[in-house]
Structure to design on (99 residues):
């Protein structure tokens, strides 16, 4: 399961369905933002500084999307920011890529 699959599942669970995906490439930089409505329940996986948001359980392929994105961001020296309020979840990724 991917992060976009998780976003689609989250949107399917709420009455107010909103999903926005913004992808831009400019001068060797890739910007991706996924913003979706969700049920407002945020779960955390791990402990201490390594603790991360996991919007779904890590069983049956769920909850691995953000973990996989974090690995790619780290591998390519990028930046990832996850924010949320009571109804909107936003994931932003910024990567420097070779043209």
């Amino acid at each position: 399961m991917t992060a976009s699959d998780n976003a689609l599942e989250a949107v399917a669970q709420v009455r107010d369905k909103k999903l926005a995906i913004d992808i831009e490439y400019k001068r060797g930089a890739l910007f991706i933002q996924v913003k979706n409505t969700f049920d407002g329940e945020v779960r955390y996986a791990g402990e201490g500084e390594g603790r991360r948001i996991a919007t779904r359980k890590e069983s049956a392929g769920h909850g691995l999307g953000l973990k996989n994105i974090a690995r790619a961001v780290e591998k390519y020296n990028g930046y990832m920011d996850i924010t949320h309020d009571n109804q909107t979840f936003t994931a932003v990724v910024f990567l420097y890529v070779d043209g």
About this structure: The CA atoms of residues 35 and 80 lie 14 Å apart. The chain has a mean pLDDT of 80.
